[in-house]
Amino acid sequence: MGSPWGIQVDQSTGNILFNENSTGTINRLDPATNMRTAWAVGGGLRFISRDTLGRIYATNDSLQQIIRVDPSLSTGNVTRWAVPGGGLGAPFSFGPTPNGITRDADGKIWFTESASNQIGRLSAGPDGILGTADDLICQYTKTGLSNPQLIATSGSDASLVFSSKNVQAFFTENSGNAVSLLTQREASGGASGFETCTTVAPTVSTVTPTTSTVAAFDFTRPFITVTIPPTIFTIPGVDGGPDAFGMTFTAGPDGIPGNADDERIPGILRWPLGVTGNSGPSGMTDVDAPNTIHGSFFSSSRLFEVKSRAIIAPPPCGKTCPLTQGFWKNHASVWPVTSLTLGSQTYTQAELLTILRTPVSGDASLILAHQLIAAKLNIANNACGTPVAATIASADSVLSGFAGKLPYSVAPSSSTGQTMVGLADTLDSFNNKMLAPASSGCQAPF
To answer: N or C end of the chain, less CB within 10 A?
Structure first.
């Protein structure tokens, strides 16, 4: 292989995606068969991403392009977008130098431009189809931004829920020694926005892939466990606003300043990490906990964590596999919480265990409660609860119709009992990992 660069695991298939910088090939490796498929697209490839259709995106810093490979096509399978300021067929020129790349929840492709100190966003134009003549590349920057590297996103502008309607792009600045945050709604904010958008018609070509079998080497390395006490600093953001985080707020859609829907004025918020011993932030996660991102320094053996109320995009769906109600009934010592609300009543752990250990004996309220307790414990344990959010809300609503605490002695054959049993069936599927989205890539919790 020629200088493997960038790597991503396709959670839906288990395939490993990576670039070869020196040979200009985009690769897909199937670990189950050790079969490698390679597309020779040329130039110096950097980082890699993919979309929900399995199409692979890569940055090319010598050709100054964003390149997409569609493995499902035999012809017209390679699409190229010239990044403004660079161009097609300009190898080794000093242009934008696209580097880090990621895809947001709405399908837009975000990338860093390390040489031109900009952030780029590739999206469909008015026709809504990415890969046609009206595609757009928007670019963002501000004074002081220097050498952006890796980038991640969180949130969505397509959501109808106000608190979720924010795509945020996070990126590291290697030479700028900073971690920075760009919120698209702010950056695109009317006359005060600071995005520059260019229509970029892509070129489409055919690259015949090559396949080969690669050798796998298995080895075991002993774990080394080290406890590292963190050093905590308070670092104001740099954005020109008057508050402690460098932000200025204005009234949101309700027109009333000070309410929860207030919006910030446009600006890239930067957190300088120039503390002694820290140098060159490079690798970075997306939002992996509320208001929190993590990363690493390229030029020092340190990691960083940034917490700020400016990070408003929600964390991604949990990646812990759900567990059955039988597991939680028999493993009280690993419960993530010691109380739950079922319907309108709050129960202690002891009360919940009593419910779990009570035979259903033809009581639909207990059939539902057993599965609802397990589902809520799973979500508290970082399982992805998105597939059953509506089901849990419905279950709580049904239970709220009864006075006092469980059980309620509801016959499964009654109208309410049938509703309870139906909800319990859905939650049972969730607790048995049958509804876990492929994107969650759920992992065993214990």
So the answer is: C
Q: Which has more confidence, 345 or 445? A: 345
pLDDT of residue 88: 39
Encode pLDDT of 279-311 as tens digits. 788 888 877 777 788 888 887 778 888 887 677
Measured distance CA(356)–CA(323) in Å, rounded: 14
Write the CB contacts of 106 (distance below 8 Å, at least 6 apart in sequence): 156, 157, 158, 167
Q: What contacts 356, CB < 8 A, 6 or more positions away? A: 325, 328, 329, 370, 373
pTM for this one?
0.69
3-state secondary structure the chain: CCCEEEEEECCCCCCEEEEECCCCEEEEEECCCCEEEEEECCCCEEEEEECCCCCEEEEECCCCEEEEECCCCCCCCEEEEECCCCCCCCCCCCCCCEEEEEECCCCCEEEEECCCCEEEEEECCCCCCCCCCCCEEEEECCCCCCCEEEEEEECECCCCCHHHECCEEEEEECCCCEEEEEEHHHHCCHHHCCCEEEECCCEEECCCCEEEECCCCCCCCCCCCCCCCCCCCCCCCECCCCCCCCCCEECCCCCCCCCCCCEECCCCEEEECCCCCCCCEEEECCCCECCEEEEEECCCCCEEEEECCCCCCCCCCCCECCCCHHHHHHCHHHCCCCEEEECCEEEEHHHHHHHHCCCCCCCHHHHHHHHHHHHHHHHHCCCCCHHHHHHHHHHHHHHCCCCCCCCCCCCCCCHHHHHHHHHHHHHHHHHCCCCCCHHHCCECCC
Q: What is the pLDDT of residues 103-116, one digit of tens each?
A: 987 789 999 999 99
Backbone phi and psi for residue 48, each to the nearest 5 degrees, phi listed first: -140, 150
Exposed (0-12), middle (13-18) or buried (19+): which is 32, by Cβ within 10 Å? exposed
N-terminal to C-terminal alpha carbon distance within the chain: 37
> Which domains, from first to last, does the chain contain?
4-307 (2.120.10), 325-440 (no CATH)
Radius of gyration of the chain (CA): 25
